[in-house]
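Checklist before submission:
- one chain only
- standard amino acids only
- sequence pasted in full

Submission:
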Amino acid sequence: MKENRYKLDSANLIKVIDAAIKTFKKVPPLHFDEFQTLEVINLHEEWKNDIINAETKFQNLRSLKYRNEDVFTYFNEGQENVSKNSGRRLKHKVYRIKEKTK
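Returned file contents:
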C-alpha cells in the first residue's frame, strides 16, 4: 500500500515540478535576472531527477515529504519574488493535478 502511495505521490510531485519549470520559463520570478532564473530551473530539474533516480532506501513517503517541502517552499514563503501571474499559473496547474488524481 505504501509503495503504491509513494509511486502516486512521486508521480504527482514530478508533474508539479514540470509545471513549475514551465512557469519559470514563461514568467520568470520578479527581480530575477536570466542567470538566477536558470539556477532555479536547474535546481528543480535536479530535484526531479533525484525523485526519478532515488535509491531504494529513499523511495519512501518521508523522503518524498522533504522533497515536496523543497519544491513548495519557494512558492509558499517566497511570494515577494513570485509574480502574480506565475503564482496563479502554478497554483492552477497544481489544482488540476490534484483533481486528476481523485
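Reviewer check: Helices lie at 2-26, 34-52, 61-77, 84-100.
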